[in-house]
Each structure stands twice: as structure tokens, then as C-alpha cells.
Amino acid sequence: MSKSDTAAPPSDEQQLPRLARARGFGLFLVLTGAVAWIASGILVLERIALYKNPDYVTSCDFNPWVSCGTVMKSSQAALLGFPNPFLGIVGFGIVITIGMALLAGARFARWYWVGVQVGVSLAMLFIIWLWSQALYEINALCLYCMVVWAMMIPMFLYTTARNIAHGVIPASVPVRKAVAEWTWVAVIVLLVLTAASVVLRFPGAFFGA
């Protein structure tokens, strides 16, 4: 039987931030994962419609700057040879499953949480790359993609915070305390910066030409 890094006495669990506790973090993963999964699913359906009809106008083609169709037709939208949203369908499905397992009382070994951390970190790097490509190469935004960005930021930060709190990622006591107290601030700052970058890059989409 493998030793679980989360198998702490209830008193220790209660001392952790709410989103670092098993049930709180499980609910968080289910909610953020579900929103991102739905957005990915819509993108898959829209992409299939484009395959069937190249002239199809997607549901989020609002103007020259916010156009899912433009983004979907770019080479960046199929980095591995198939539409990127398929990665979201699989990846966020796994996230939801982990969250549901935690809500059901499951506890995972440290090596498993290391794998989760690697997975969300790679996903975050992929999202950063997609953000840069949308803003500076494709020159168009995808509404549903931005929903995924908005879910991925807190998912990455709170997963990292959870793993620091449980010792999966080694850290000193001051670092653990800082992470416990300030992760929500980091989430807000990154979301605001991301939104600001979009508005500054495409002012015409928000303030008119």
C-alpha cells in the first residue's frame, strides 16, 4: 500500500487553506474542469461543422478581432495534427475525474500528485503559447479559448499551491504560508493582466474602430 501525502489527521487537514483540503480542492477541480471541458466540447463541435462546410460561420464570430473561425483555420489550432480542443476534452476530463475522486474520499500517493503537477504545468505552458499566438501571430481571438484560459490560470496556481501545502513540492515554512495566503491574489493579478493584454492588443473589439 503506497503512502499518501494527503493522509493527514483531520486536525492537520483543517489547518490547511480550504482549497488545499481534499473536498475543497476536489470541488474546485470539478467546477473549473467542467467549465473548460464544456468550452472545449463546443470548440470541437464548431470545428467539425467547419470541416463539413468551410463557409460555416461559428457561433463566436462577432467581428474581425473575435472570430473563432479565423483561429480554428490557423495552423496553430492543430499543433499535433488534430484540433487542439481534443486535448482539452481528454485533459479536462481527467481533471474532473480527479476532482470527483477526491470528493468521494480518494487519496493519492505523492507520485500521483507529481504527475498532476507536471500535467497542469505543461497545460499552462501550452495556454501561454496559444495566448501569444492568438495575440501576435493569428491576430484574432476565440471566445471559447479565452474561457479555457480563464479556467487554466486558477487551476494551475491552486494545484501548485495545494502541492506546496502538502509537501509534494518542497518549500520552506514561510513560502508555504505565503502561498496559502496569497494564491488568490496571484490568480486575480494574472487574470487581470491577461484581460488587459487582450484589450490593449485589440482595442477595436471593445471600443470600436
UniProtKB/TrEMBL annotation:
Per UniProt, which keywords does this protein have? Disulfide bond, Membrane, Oxidoreductase, Quinone, Redox-active center, Transmembrane, Transmembrane helix
Q: Where in the cell is the protein located?
A: Membrane
- Per the UniProt record, one Pfam family is VKOR
Which positions, given as ranges, span the membrane? 25-45, 86-104, 111-132, 138-158, 179-200
Ranges for domain Vitamin K epoxide reductase come to 22-163
How does the entry describe its membrane topology?
Answer: Multi-pass membrane protein
Family affiliation: Belongs to the VKOR family.
The protein depicted here goes by the name Membrane protein
